[in-house]
C-alpha cells in the first residue's frame, strides 16, 4: 500500500492545562496546513490513584532505578488512549505528535516520503531524545532509515501503522517501564522500530517538562546499589536488540540500499 497524508489521521497529544503549548503547536500546524485532532492528555499527577491500577509499581521502579513520575505515567496512558482513538478511526496509519515539537522546513516532505514507502517501516520516529547505535537500513531520498542497537527514546513525533498498534496495545499493560522504554522493546513485540534521519523535527520543552520538572528536578534516583537491576537491564537490552536485528537481517548496515524499491 502507498499512503498519502489524506489517508492517515493526525493527533496532537496535549494536556488541557498546557494552554501555551497548545497555542504554539496550533500556530505551527496551521502554518503547515496540516489538519489534526487534539487528544486530551492524561494528567498523571491528578489521576495517580486511577493509574496505579495499570501498573506493576515494584517492577517499574526496579527497571528504571528511580521513583515513579506520575506525569510520565500520564504520558504512557495518553499514548494508549490516542492509539485506541486511532484504531477506532479506521485509518491505516497515524501521525502522533506531542505538544513540544518544533517542525523543520522539510517536515511535510519527509512525512510524504515516509508514507509513500510505508512498506519500509512499522513505526518511524521523526525526532528523538536519544537514538544510540544507529544501523542504516537503507535510504529514502536524502534520508537514512535507521534501526538502533541502543536506546531509541522519545515519542515527540512518529508514524505508526494500524497493525503495529494492534500488536502493541495488549502488551503495554501492566506498565513496567516508561512509554518509550516499552516501545523500544521491539525485540519482544516483534516490529520494525526505525528512525528517519536527519530527523525532520526536534523537541523543545522550554526547559520545563510536565514529567521530570525543571532541569529534571523531580527525578529521584535510588542509590547506586539499588540501581544495579536497572544497569543490568540497560546492558542486556543491547544484546536483545542485536539478536533480534540479526535474526531479521537488519544488523548489517546497508547504506546504499534504496528502500523506495518495494520487495
Automatic annotation (TrEMBL):
Residue ranges of domain Glycosyl transferase family in the record: 10-180
The lineage, from the top, is:
Bacteria, Pseudomonadati, Pseudomonadota, Alphaproteobacteria, Rhodobacterales
Protein name as catalogued? Glycosyl transferase family 25 domain-containing protein
Q: Name one Pfam family in it.
A: Glyco_transf_25
Which superkingdom, per the lineage?
Bacteria
| Organism encoding this protein | Pseudorhodobacter turbinis
CDD domains documented for this protein: Glyco_transf_25
Keyword list (alphabetical) reads: Plasmid
